[in-house]
Amino acid sequence: MNKELTHLRVNGEEREIAITPNRLLLDALREDLGLTGSKRGCDDSSCGCCAVLIDGTPMLSCVALAASYEGREITTVEGLGGPGELDPVQEGYAEMGGAQCGYCTPGFMIATKALLDRNPDPTMDEIREALSGNLCRCTGYMQIYESVKYAIEKLRAKSATQAPATR
Amino acid sequence: MTLPAFRVLQPRTVEDAVRMLDEHRSDAMVIAGGTDVIPNLQMRLFTPRVLVDVKPLRELAVIEFSARQGLHIGATATLTHILETPWMRDKFAVLASAIGTVAGPLQRNMGTIGGNLCLETRCRWYNQSHFWRQSLGGCLKKDGDICHVAPGGKFCWAAWSGDSAPAFLALDAELEIASLSGTRRVPLREFYKNDGMDRIALARNELLTAVHVPAHMAGRRGVYQKLRVRDSIDYPLAGVAVAMEVDSAGICKDARVALSAVNPAPMLVTQAGESLIGRKWSLELAERVAHAAIQTGKPLTTSGSTPVYRRDMVRVFTRRALEETWKNGHGSA
Ligand SMILES: Cc1cc2nc3c(=O)[nH]c(=O)nc-3n(C[C@H](O)[C@H](O)[C@H](O)COP(=O)(O)OP(=O)(O)OC[C@H]3O[C@@H](n4cnc5c(N)ncnc54)[C@H](O)[C@@H]3O)c2cc1C
Ligand code: FES
Ligand code: FES
């Protein structure tokens, strides 16, 4: 199979890689771009560990052919937060024990980020629904929900202090 | 697991797409969201040389309703897009109910309605890695000549495992199919062949472009009940869709009941309508229709759950779905 030059926009940067047409986005991210945050947690696209944002929507990079996502805005867990600064979502998982072995965590963070970007004040049912495509073998999910609530509070506090400045 | 080698073609229009399919015929396969195709390719269930990627065809992503034309959903509309269409739940309750149970939210963000209606049939002896299948010498559907579900038989029982098809059957939907020679319309109930090996009446050079529901179906009460191991992500082990029209006196004017995951095709329970029309709710009547449903659903050992349990759940779910829609008015606009 011939490799083709493919342009991916990942975490705000234009990246050029030479890949075969059957290259999955997950493998392109991990192996061609060295972004090993996204994980492969299953063989049948059922676990959510590989979730990334595509134009803001969480999707499974293990069913996406990389070349089909040229021109789209791809955000991996590495793209959350800024240099030297954690996103409130990441802070939540760190503070509230939302990560144990950590394998599922990038996928959960991506799903959480997508939820809070659209709906900064979700109900418990909405949180459960938004995270229902991600599996975790360690935490029993309760700490994960606590992490999401922590992030919600953090974001609320942040927007309260920022509001006067933008007026 | 890795993917076999293939080329990916990116059509710009429907015409392009059908030309590509026509040119490559049995070497080609359509890919939309890829949530069914990619895991199956990883398991080497098929090895097409060419994938025709229809996902970017925006002209096929349209969702529309009009009182004259009814409901139109283009084949590449994602399941999430359908669920988030504000009027969907009020107008087509059974459809929103069914689509909301497909896989998990991440698969629904990628999966399309076209892919859902053309899903591969599933079986515990088929949806396995190449290595696993090889150790058993394959099966009728792939690389072998025996059926592990019904040994000695020459028929493939792999189960229809999509959730939207029974809802669309309950809404008497029609499909729009394009090829080089133009477009044709086919009633959904004629699309499924009830053969695990050869599941749908779609030629290799044809593309599903849209699904239509007649306007008079808008506003029907309805619900979909689904059996699965976990309440998210899992494929159905059994599914029952009910759509009905009930007048102000509580009398059933029209009703359709359809099943999923218990036959190689999604199926209408044909006796349901005549038993229900003109009648008022009673538990006894619901039980009678539930009994008819288990004459239609014939689950076999295609999944991890036992046929006896799945069959019994078809009965329970049919009764419950009728109770919810008719007695409790669930899904009424
Ligand atoms: C873990 C997991 C769980 C799942 N659970 C469920 C479930 O509970 N219920 C359920 O219904 N599905 C389930 N699915 C399957 C799938 O996610 C959905 O059915 C989805 O809607 C398929 O759409 P797609 O666009 O991804 O299809 P694809 O994978 O792109 O295609 C599926 C099939 O349809 C054909 N096809 C697609 N579009 C067209 C077209 N326009 N014309 C002709 N042929 C076409 C393809 O060639 C292929 O054979 C699950 C998948 C996974 C990975
Ligand atoms: S790796 Fe498990 S869903 Fe993608
Ligand atoms: S923290 Fe280990 S799988 Fe979730």
Molecular structure report:
The complex is a heterodimer of chains A (167) and B (333). The mean pLDDT of chain A is 95. Chain A has a 5-stranded mixed sheet, with helices on both faces. Chain A has helices at 25-32, 88-95, 105-118, 124-130, 142-166; strands at residues 4-10, 13-19, 51-54, 57-60, 73-75. Chain A folds into 2 domains: 4-79, Beta-grasp domain (Ubiquitin-like (UB roll), Roll); 88-159, DNA polymerase, domain 1 (Orthogonal Bundle). Chain A is an alpha+beta fold and 167 residues long. Helices cover 37% and strands 15% of the residues of chain A. With 333 residues, chain B is α+β, with helices and mostly antiparallel strands. Chain B has one domain: 2-Layer Sandwich (Enolase-like, domain 1). Chain B is 31% helix and 20% strand. Chain B is built from 13 helices and 12 strands. In chain B, the strands form 3 sheets. Chain B has a 5-stranded antiparallel sheet with strand order 4-5-8-6-7. Chain B has a 4-stranded antiparallel sheet with strand order 9-10-11-12, with helices on both faces. A 3-stranded parallel sheet of chain B has the order 1-3-2, with helices on one face. In chain B, helix 5 runs antiparallel to helix 9 (164-170) and helix 12 runs antiparallel to helix 13 (307-327). The chains are: A alpha+beta (167), B alpha+beta (333). Chain A binds chain B through residues 1, 20-22, 24, 43-46, 48, 51, 57-60, 62-65, 67-68, 111, 129-130, 132-135, and chain B through 1-8, 10, 31, 33-35, 38-39, 42, 51, 53, 55-56, 80, 103-107, 109-110, 127, 129, 231-233. The complex binds flavin-adenine dinucleotide (FAD) and FE2/S2 (inorganic) cluster (FES) (2 copies). Flavin-adenine dinucleotide (FAD) sits between chains B (29-37, 39, 54, 75, 79, 102-103, 107, 110-112, 114-116, 118-120, 162-163, 207-208, 233-236) and A (44-46).
